[in-house]
């Protein structure tokens, strides 16, 4: 499978027929060289319930996706009821906000910082995290602490907080591969206090019952952070050193005083198999926001392939994808919804099937002034959702094309449109049209196959669309 990368004009990239988000703050000048970059490889992995059959895992993944979508709709409705929506305070920094370029000693895997006198400019650099794919989710690997230990967290563009399970754990789920992080073993770990700007940002969005108050500014910053499927983590905000690798494996980057959550009580089936969550949203606590450059991109391969996916962070992450894959990058704009500012929105203007435009008005998917509409980029959902009217048009078009060519069966796996005994060559491709860019989704990504059953991996949504 090739990776088709495309960037979005004010800054976005899609790849491998699924979303690849790039948020560059500057572009390469003519004749300039590709800057430093780090990559995280994403590979598929059965973490939900490896002993279950494929059909059972699909049911769990789609059910979780539906629950997340419903929760997002509830969050939007609640935010729309609050006058003026939600906003982030500007200027929040983590520690000194610096990143150090370090060399990687191949024989030991240790990182060492360059001498200050020989330190390279931060401009044009990029870094990455290794990513593994799971049923309906992708795990990114980074290093945390001093000495650094591995953290495998679910990549989530729909949330901000980066967190992992920590000792001493009051109520933790099973981590099958890695031990729970023990902050007492890290010499660079320290807790955040209630007076810190990032603590105040976190509590405004997560923990109205926190012990933090004006009379206790030096108390540790305790929080409870809830997700779209009602899973949650409860713990303390802290700082430690984050380490990211260069894609070539020759260097790594250390971010001092990186803010993350130490979760002492964590609950949710969607966390199974991961150490925590890697929030990549637009808020100040996300991984992207805490790096010197806020740019990142990712390429997600099919869930049925063993080929790795990649998360790239830093300036020129888009250029790396284009250089590596030799593909043309397209550009479209990122929009922000004041009612849900964490999310990345795109302006979907239309759709076509096998080259024929579908009868869907551009207004169907547009972001409205009341916060409804628009298309959210969300790596946390398993399937793509379309606004209900557009979804019904797509369903009718696919049923019309496959009429007489296959046997339609009742809804399966939580998906609305399924067929049996289907000739794969008859399956259609679907194209998403954005401002200045198009993304073609091949039938192999549009349909989920289990034995002889093919189901359309799309769903309907009342308030907005979601590109997973």
TrEMBL record:
Domain of life of the source: Eukaryota
InterPro entries: Aspartic_peptidase_AS, Pepsin-like_plant, PEPTIDASE_A1, Peptidase_aspartic_dom_sf, Plant_Aspart_Prot_A1, TAXi_C, TAXi_N
Biological processes per GO annotation: proteolysis
Record keywords: Aspartyl protease, Glycoprotein, Hydrolase, Protease, Signal
Domain Peptidase A1: 138-468
Signal peptide: 1-29
Pfam families (alphabetical): TAXi_C (PF14541), TAXi_N (PF14543)
GO CC, one annotated term: extracellular region
Presence of the UniProt keyword Glycoprotein in the record: yes
Listed GO MF terms: aspartic-type endopeptidase activity
Record's keyword annotation contains Protease: yes
Similarity field: Belongs to the peptidase A1 family.
Protein name: Peptidase A1 domain-containing protein
């Amino acid at each position: 499978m090739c990776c088709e990368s495309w960037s979005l004009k004010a800054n976005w990239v899609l790849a491998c027929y699924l979303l690849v988000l790039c948020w560059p703050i500057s572009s390469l000048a003519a004749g300039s060289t590709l800057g430093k970059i780090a990559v995280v490889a994403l590979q598929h992995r059965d973490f939900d319930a490896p002993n279950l059959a494929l059909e059972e895992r699909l049911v769990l993944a789609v059910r979780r996706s539906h629950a997340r979508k419903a929760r997002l709709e509830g969050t939007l409705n609640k935010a729309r009821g609050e006058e003026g929506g939600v906003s982030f305070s500007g200027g929040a920094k983590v520690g000194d906000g610096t990143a150090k370029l370090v060399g990687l000693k191949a024989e030991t895997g240790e990182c060492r910082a360059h001498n200050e006198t020989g330190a390279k400019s931060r401009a044009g650099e990029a870094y990455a995290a290794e990513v593994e794919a799971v049923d309906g989710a992708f795990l990114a690997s980074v290093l945390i602490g001093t000495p650094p230990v591995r953290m495998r967290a679910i990549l989530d563009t729909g949330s901000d907080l980066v967190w992992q399970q920590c000792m001493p754990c009051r109520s933790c789920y099973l981590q099958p591969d890695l031990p729970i992080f023990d902050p007492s073993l890290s010499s660079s770990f320290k807790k955040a206090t209630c007076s810190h700007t990032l603590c105040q940002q976190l509590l405004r969005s997560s923990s109205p019952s926190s012990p933090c108050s004006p009379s206790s500014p030096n108390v540790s910053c305790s929080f409870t952070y809830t997700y779209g499927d009602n899973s949650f983590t409860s713990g303390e905000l802290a700082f430690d050193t984050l380490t990211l690798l260069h894609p070539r494996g020759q260097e790594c980057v250390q971010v001092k005083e990186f803010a993350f959550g130490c979760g002492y009580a964590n609950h949710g089936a969607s966390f199974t198999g991961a150490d925590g969550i890697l929030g990549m949203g637009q808020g100040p606590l996300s991984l992207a926001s805490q790096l010197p450059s806020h740019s990142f991109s990712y390429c997600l391969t099919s869930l049925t392939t063993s080929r790795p996916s990649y998360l790239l962070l830093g300036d020129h992450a888009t250029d790396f994808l284009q250089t590596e894959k030799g593909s043309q990058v397209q550009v479209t704009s990122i929009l922000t919804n004041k009612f849900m500012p964490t999310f990345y929105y795109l302006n979907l203007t239309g759709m076509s099937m096998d080259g024929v435009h579908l009868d869907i008005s551009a207004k169907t998917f547009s972001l409205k002034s009341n916060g409804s509409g628009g298309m959210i980029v969300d790596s946390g959902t398993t399937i793509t959702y379309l606004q209900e009217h557009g979804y019904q048009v797509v369903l009718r078009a696919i049923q019309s094309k496959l009429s007489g060519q296959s046997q339609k069966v009742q809804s399966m796996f939580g998906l609305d449109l399924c067929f049996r005994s289907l000739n794969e060559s008859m399956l259609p491709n679907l194209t998403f049209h954005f401002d200045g860019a198009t993304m073609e989704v091949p039938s192999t990504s549009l349909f989920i196959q289990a034995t002889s059953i093919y189901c359309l991996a799309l769903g309907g949504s009342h308030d907005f669309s979601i590109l997973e």
